[in-house]
Specification:
The protein is built from 16 helices and seven strands. The chain is an alpha+beta fold. The strands form two sheets. Strands 1-2-3-4 form a four-stranded antiparallel beta sheet. It has three domains: 11-99, Integrase, DNA-binding domain (Double Stranded RNA Binding Domain, 2-Layer Sandwich), CATH 3.30.160.390; 104-200, DNA polymerase, domain 1 (Orthogonal Bundle), CATH 1.10.150.130; 215-407, Orthogonal Bundle (hpI Integrase, Chain A). The protein has helices at 11-20, 67-82, 87-99, 104-114, 121-139, 149-162, 165-184, 215-224, 230-242, 246-250, 288-301, 318-336, 346-359, 364-370, 377-382, 388-407; strands at 24-29, 32-36, 42-50, 53-61, 257-258, 263-267, 281-285.
Length: 419
């Protein structure tokens, strides 16, 4: 039996065939074939059998792919065919994946339409702030599946250096949300953000203890509010009196508030802990002082749908930007009080309110529901009461206490009798 020949072609032969412009197909051996089409396209083709069927794989054009390179490519593909792989099908799948490859920008658009609407309003705003402000400028034009954990690590380290650990941590959280969606859509094969540990990015600052303002600090805090912008003063008073989260105030619309009934209905989608809620909203009973402050804010809103309208033109992250700027103003205001009041954040106003409710003798379950906390455990299972009347009485008592402190009259906290 004659031995099958291989490597029978030469560059001289190929160039003569191309000059002659005559369609031709010549085998070099082991399935490698040089073809010249009617239109003059010179192409390398690998012919093989898979599953008993004849198949072809286009390797490349001549002279972009030289004779030597074509032989090397053919040899490599034959090894894969012998290993049980249909190389033509694999190439088609890869071509399809390349044509359908999403950029990070495309993935973000899908997240904006399908994932973000399911988040609380403030969380949506924060997500857009980091996704649009940080992720998109860096990776927007990249093919999503090409982003690696090394790329992510370097990006987060830069954010931590330029801004803070927490900015990098938030960027990681919301970017990871994008790539988690990409996994579900099969746009990427892995989430590169999950492979990055924030401990390798930057040192996390020590956790700051919550602050409960004492009577002296509360008196200084309230008295000084007369000297700052009225909108800020009213917002700070409302947060301290009602104990709502700052995000709930900055996301509040006038349609949420019934001043006549003295009730503030916070929709579930605007509440951070909405996943733990069974009701569609949380009702805040408003003391007379809160109603008066809100009426004044309504006048200051000048027809805006928002209780706290933006002070500057902001595009996508309105509520997030409002919150951050107002927080800066709160910190700046407290600094002007010097040693009369410790530095605080918005959440410290909430924790101050909760602590003083206990000092005023308000039952634990009522105080916890006043700040929309889950009661937890068996209490949560068996006690479905919303304590609206009790919460109204508690907030009225707290309002009276704050009023007395600001006026300098002082007030003696009510103490429950021992049972």
């Amino acid at each position: 039996m004659a031995k099958r020949q291989s490597k029978v072609l030469s560059d001289q032969q190929i160039q003569r065939w191309i000059r002659a412009k005559t369609p031709i197909a010549r085998a070099d051996g082991d399935g490698l074939t040089f073809t010249l089409s009617v239109k003059g396209a010179a192409v390398w083709v690998l012919r093989y059998r898979y599953g008993g069927r004849r198949k072809e794989l286009t390797l490349g054009r001549y002279p972009d792919m030289t004779l030597k390179t074509a032989r090397e490519e053919a040899s490599s593909h034959r090894l894969r065919i012998n290993g049980g792989l249909d190389v033509a099908v694999e190439k088609q799948r890869r071509k399809t994946m390349d044509s359908e490859a999403w950029t990070v920008r495309q993935l973000v658009r899908d997240v904006e339409s399908k994932v973000l609407p399911g988040l609380a309003d403030l969380t949506q705003a924060q997500a857009r702030s980091y996704i649009v402000g940080d992720l998109m400028p860096k990776f927007g034009a990249w093919v999503a599946r090409d982003v690696t954990s090394d790329d992510v690590q370097a990006w987060l380290e830069a954010i931590a250096t330029e801004r803070s650990y927490y900015a990098a941590s938030n960027a990681r959280k919301f970017a990871s949300l994008v790539f988690k969606h990409g996994l579900a859509r099969r746009v990427v094969k892995e989430n590169p953000f999950r492979a990055v540990d924030m401990r390798t990015v930057a040192h996390r600052p020590d956790t700051r203890a919550r602050v409960k303002l004492n009577d002296s600090e509360l008196r200084a805090f309230l008295s000084g509010l007369k000297g700052i912008a009225e909108q800020d003063a009213l917002a700070f008073r409302l947060l301290l009196l009602t104990g709502v989260r700052a995000g709930e105030l900055f996301g509040a619309e006038w349609t949420d508030i019934d001043l006549g009934a003295a009730l503030w209905c916070i929709p579930k989608n605007k509440i951070k802990t909405r996943k733990k809620m069974s009701a569609d909203s949380f009702i805040v009973p408003l003391p007379a002082d809160a109603v008066a402050w809100l009426k004044r804010l309504h006048t200051l809103a000048c027809g805006s749908r928002w209780v706290m309208p933006p002070r500057a033109r902001i595009v996508d992250d309105r509520k997030s930007a409002d919150y951050e700027r107002a927080l800066d103003r709160l910190k700046g205001y407290v600094e002007t009080l010097g040693t009369a009041c410790r530095p605080i954040t918005f959440h410290d106003l909430r924790s101050t309110m909760r602590s003083h409710l206990s000092a005023l003798g308000v039952r634990t379950e009522v105080a916890e529901r006043a700040i929309n906390h889950s009661l937890g455990g068996l209490i949560e299972i068996y006690d479905k009461g919303d304590y609206l009347d009790e919460r109204k009485a508690a907030l009225n008592k707290w309002a009276a206490s704050l009023g007395a402190l600001e006026s300098g009259a002082g007030i003696v906290p009510f103490k429950r009798k021992a049972s």
